[in-house]
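Predict structure. Chain length: 332.
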Amino acid sequence: MQAEKINNQELLRISNLRTHFHTYEGVVTAVDGIDLEVYRGETLGVVGESGCGKSVTALSILRLLASPPAEIRGEVLFDGKNLLNMSLDEVRKIRGNSISMIFQEPMTSLNPVLTIGEQISEAIKLHQGGTRQEAWGRAVEMLRMVQIPSPEIRAKEYPHKLSGGMRQRAMIAMALSCHPKLLLADEPTTALDVTIQAQIVDLMQHLKEEFETSIVLITHNLGLIAEMARRVGVMYMGKIVEEGSVEDLFLEPLHPYTQGLLESIPWIGEKSKAGRKPLREIPGMVPGLTEMPEGCRFHPRCSRVMNICRREEPPLIQPKDGRRVLCWLWAQ
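Prediction complete.
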C-alpha cells in the first residue's frame, strides 16, 4: 500500500445511516446503521460480497435513490453540513461538483445519445460556469489527463465507440472534471482485464495526489483495497462488521467473515506441509434481505457460532486502538 498524505481533518462523517425500501413484501433494510468517517486526502475501502449494501451506501450518500420506494435516515455530514437535511436543489449543486461518483458500469451510466465531450463539458458548465467553448476545451484536457489517446477526436465520439477501458477513463474524467473533494468509486475496475485494471489504479492514484481528493473505494477486490486504501470497512448484510487499517485487517482479521474473505484468496508462494495451501470457502450464500436471520447476521455461515449469536445481535466492540468489530467473540 502506498503512503498517503493525511491531515486527519474529517471530510465526511456517516452516522447511523439506514436505507429502507418499501416493497410489496414489506419494508426491506439494505443499509442498517452504518457509521463511517473519511478524512481529507485518504482512501477508505468498503469491501464485501455482492448484495451486502456497498453500492446502496454510496447512492444513499448522494441521495440518488428514488423516494419512494427508498427511505434514507441518519446523518451524512459533508464539510459539516448534513446532506440528508438539504433540499434536492442544494444536493444537486454538490453532486458532480464537491462530491463525484464513478459508477460500476460506465456503458449504462453514460448517456448513449450524447458524445463523451458533451457529457463532460455539460458538468463543467453547470458547476463551474464559463462559455461552452471553454467547457469543451476543459473536457478535452480532462480526457488527455486520463490518458485517452487523441482526446480531441474521442471527445466527439459516442460511448459505444469506446472500449471498456476508455469508457471507464471517460467516467473518471467526468467525475474529476470539477476537482471534487470526495470521489465515490463503485467497483471502478470491474469487467476490465488485468492490464487495464492496473492502469486505472495507477491513474486514480495519480489524480488523487494531484487534486488531493478523498476516495471511498467500494469493491469486492481485496487486492485493490491493499493497493489503494489506508483504512477499510468490511460490510455484510447492510452492516459494517469490522473496521481498521489495511495493515491490521490483513495481518490480524478479527471477524470470522473477514477471516473467511482473506482465506478464500490465493496467495502466491503460500504452502502447507502437504503442498499448496488449499483455498477455503465461506459456506452458504448471503441471505436475501427479506430473510434476515435473528441475532448475528453472519451466524448461519459462521464456523465459530455460539448460542448467543443465534439469539442476540452483537454489540460494536473496540478491542484495540483503531479497530472496531461487530462480533460476540470479542465481547467475552
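Summary: The CA atoms of residues 198 and 241 lie 29 Å apart.
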